[in-house]
Amino acid sequence: MKALKIYVAGKVSKDSSFGTHYWRDGFVEKLQNLSGLKLVSLDPAKKLTDQTKPKEAFGADVYMISRSDVIVVYLSDDISVGGSQEILIAKYYKKPVIGLAPLGGRFNHKNKEIFGQIVEDYRHPFVYSTCDVVCDDIQGVAEQLKNLSKFKIKNIDLIKEAADQYQNNNLKSDKYLNKLLNDS
């Protein structure tokens, strides 16, 4: 069985909710045990780039994403900007993205109040629109890894498609945006 190259996006800081730079080791080992697949982790915390050179560090992460078979993004409540960028970089390279958004966390709620409205079964729009699939727990991620061949992989075109869909289907009834666009 050929090993699946996996890039796990998420917090890098040892001060994160994980408490270590190297939480991916245990995470990938658990995924391997749950899925029965052989996984090779392309770990952004272990790359040997000079962290004082942002372009080099960015380039290394982008390269690892381009070489991965799948990207798993751990959407912890303290995820940084890098995780969201890594999702879009994966879409640029047409890579499957599995999001792990724990139920009750920042990105996945039974109910969430937004601008005075209660949204039942809230799913963060940027997460659910850009990931190919989003799971509530690590067991769900392991199951999805076994089904990668069945994924309909989104690509970077999802951005233009979303804007076009809004313009064609919703813009007419958006009084706020229509006023701004017509007054300027």
In short:
It is built from seven helices and seven strands, in the order βαβαβαβββαβααα. It is of the alpha/beta class.
Question: Could you describe the 3D structure shown?
Answer:
This protein is an alpha/beta fold and 184 residues long. It has two domains: 4-153, Rossmann fold; 156-184, no CATH class. The chain has seven helices and seven strands. It has helices spanning 23-35, 54-67, 81-92, 125-130, 138-145, 158-169, 175-183, and strands at 4-9, 39-41, 70-74, 97-100, 111-114, 117-120, 133-135. The strands form two sheets. A five-stranded parallel sheet has the order 2-1-3-4-7, sandwiched between helices. Helix 3 links the parallel strand 3 (70-74) and strand 4. Helix 1 packs across helix 5 (138-145). The radius of gyration is 18 Å and the shape is globular. The termini are far apart.
Keywords:
40% helix; globular; 16% strand; 2 domains; 184 residues; 7 helices; Rossmann fold; 5-stranded parallel β-sheet; two-stranded antiparallel ribbon; alpha/beta
Based on CA inertia axes, which overall geometry fits? globular
Structural class, from secondary structure content? alpha/beta
Q: And the CATH topology of the largest domain?
A: Rossmann fold
Could you give the order of strands across the largest sheet?
Answer: 2-1-3-4-7
The percent range for helix content is 40-55%
Rounded to the nearest angstrom, the distance between the terminal CA atoms is: 60 Å
What is the arithmetic mean of pLDDT?
89
- Rounded Rg: 18 Å
Number of helices: 7
The second-level CATH architecture of the largest domain is: 3-Layer(aba) Sandwich
Q: H/E element string?
A: EHEHEHEEEHEHHH
Q: Stretches where pLDDT falls below 50 for ≥5 residues? A: none
Main pleated-sheet profile:
5 strands, parallel
Strands, count: 7
Number of domains: 2
Give the DSSP E fraction (strand runs of 2 or more residues).
Answer: 15-25%
